[in-house]
């Protein structure tokens, strides 16, 4: 593979700079530790690539012409940048990954994220984490603004992006805890006749997933109240204003409201699950991705699930299902 940046051969550029600095092909060859013939060939190759002559060959000692002067002024910065990249790559290979950028959906960032941050320093010298919606995170990954993305939808080109399933969670319904006759078992359809449904907006993947589930279950609920975030939804449910369909991670994300809500059973269907995936560009960050996968599954299994069950004992069984067969040797439901 040619060692080049934007069509400029770095070896030829290094030879060009040496000739400009020493004003001699012979001296440049000595500095670089190659033959004079090799320097001449590299300069000729550079001139062919650029489509211009770079030296005024009517003068001795050799000196760059107008085009060569412009290239010489900018060549130093290019070579310094290439050297810095090489040093960073070698340093990362020896001591761990540097400057890792992770993007996550909000519910993951607010629940699993803090635990992951404490566990990752062994794998990364420096890393950043921020949250967003799945479509934006996917685009940032493809545009190389992110190194890893944790999303709830996987629609990117599999030839460019590698997908690792993490875990799934079942959708749950919530209603105000002080709702009348709250001690008697009741179906969610009945609650919808008494209280308005508070929805996530269709801009979010969870909003789209819940809408498909509602349609599949033939639940009737006029579109009146829609929110981007979980906190205002659960706040209004806790205040007795309405009911909602959400997920376990979203519940834990806004756990300050858990004491004022009650869980309402929902039918278990394929559409009633929300899936989490770790996305990376192909052949990049594989070791770190494996670590993030393991840690994510362990955090959900050992920290989030027990805490949620303690706060909401009436949660249905199997609220989380991890794709841990290759990692933990068993398929884990918690």
Automatic annotation (TrEMBL):
PROSITE patterns, sorted: HTH_LYSR
Alphabetic keyword roster: DNA-binding, Transcription, Transcription regulation
A Pfam family the protein falls into: LysR_substrate
Domain of life: Bacteria
HTH lysR-type domain boundaries: 8-65
GO molecular function: DNA-binding transcription factor activity; transcription cis-regulatory region binding
InterPro entries named in the record: LysR_HTH_N, LysR_subst-bd, WH-like_DNA-bd_sf, WH_DNA-bd_sf
CDD domains reported in the protein's UniProt record: PBP2_LTTR_substrate
Entry similarity comment: Belongs to the LysR transcriptional regulatory family.
Full protein name: DNA-binding transcriptional regulator, LysR family
């Amino acid at each position: 593979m040619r060692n080049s940046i934007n069509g400029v051969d770095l070896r030829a550029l290094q030879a060009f700079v040496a000739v400009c600095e020493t004003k001699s092909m012979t001296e440049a060859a000595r500095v670089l530790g190659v033959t004079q013939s090799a320097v001449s060939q590299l300069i000729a190759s550079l001139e062919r690539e650029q489509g211009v002559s770079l030296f005024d060959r009517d003068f001795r000692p050799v000196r760059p012409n107008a085009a060569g002067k412009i290239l010489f002024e900018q060549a130093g910065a290019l070579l310094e940048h290439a050297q810095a990249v090489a040093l960073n790559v070698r340093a990362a290979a020896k001591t761990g990954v540097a400057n890792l950028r992770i993007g996550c959906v909000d519910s993951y960032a607010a629940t699993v994220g803090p635990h992951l941050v404490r566990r990752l320093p062994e794998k990364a010298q420096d890393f950043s984490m921020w949250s967003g919606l799945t479509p934006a995170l996917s685009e940032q990954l493809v545009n190389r603004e992110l190194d890893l993305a944790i999303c709830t939808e996987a629609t990117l080109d599999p030839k460019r992006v590698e997908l690792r399933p993490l875990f799934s969670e079942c959708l749950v319904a919530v209603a105000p805890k002080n709702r009348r006759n709250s001690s008697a078992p009741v179906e969610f359809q009945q609650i919808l006749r008494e209280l308005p449904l508070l929805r996530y907006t269709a801009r979010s993947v969870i909003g789209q997933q819940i809408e498909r589930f509602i349609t599949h279950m033939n639940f009737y609920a006029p579109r009146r109240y829609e929110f981007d975030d979980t906190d205002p939804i659960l706040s209004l449910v806790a205040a007795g204003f309405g009911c909602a369909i959400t997920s376990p991670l979203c519940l834990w994300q806004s756990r300050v409201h858990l004491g004022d809500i009650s869980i309402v059973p929902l039918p278990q269907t394929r559409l009633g699950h929300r899936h989490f995936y770790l996305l990376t560009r192909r052949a990049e960050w594989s070791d770190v991705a494996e670590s993030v996968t393991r840690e994510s599954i362990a955090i959900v299994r050992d920290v989030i699930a027990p805490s949620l069950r303690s706060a909401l004992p009436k949660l249905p069984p199997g609220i989380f299902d991890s794709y841990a067969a290759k990692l933990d040797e068993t398929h884990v439901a918690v």
